[in-house]
Design goal:
Elements (H helix, E strand, L loop, with lengths): L2 H25 L5 H22 L4 H30 L5 H30 L2
Helix pairs in contact: 1-2, 1-4, 2-3, 3-4
Keywords: Membrane, Transmembrane, Transmembrane helix
């Protein structure tokens, strides 16, 4: 994967996080304000990393994107586990658990793509 491809991937990943935040908020506006704020914040941040990678960012851009995405993977792992446990206990958390799990899958895929492209990004002038 090239520098251009991973840059575009991260812009798309950022848009994905923003959309997930909007969907989470729309599903429960009274209780999901943090979904909107975190989706927008980390979506914009991920898109910024994507633009930075497109514009020639090398190891600093890779590290920023990687650390942010690893943080999100950890958070989504914890949140999805808690949501699925709450759903198993009878709470109406199916939608939230599913959405957070989808965000975890998207974040894990982003880490994989970042690792696959790291050599190309570091070698591209």
């Amino acid at each position: 994967m090239s520098r251009t491809s991973i840059g575009r991937w991260y812009i798309g990943y950022g848009l994905f996080l923003i959309v997930c935040g909007l969907v989470g908020f729309a599903s429960n506006p009274a209780a999901a304000k943090t979904a909107l704020m975190s989706g927008a914040t980390f979506g914009i941040l991920s898109a910024v990393w994507g633009f930075w990678l497109l514009k020639g960012g090398r190891w600093p851009a890779l590290i920023a994107a990687g650390l942010t995405t690893l943080l999100l993977c950890a958070t989504f792992s914890w949140r999805s586990t808690m949501s699925w446990q709450a759903y198993a206990d009878g709470e109406p958390k199916l939608f939230a658990a599913s959405l957070i799990t989808v965000m975890l899958i998207g974040s894990a895929a982003s880490i994989i793509q970042l690792l696959r492209s790291s050599k190309a990004v570091l070698q591209t002038p």
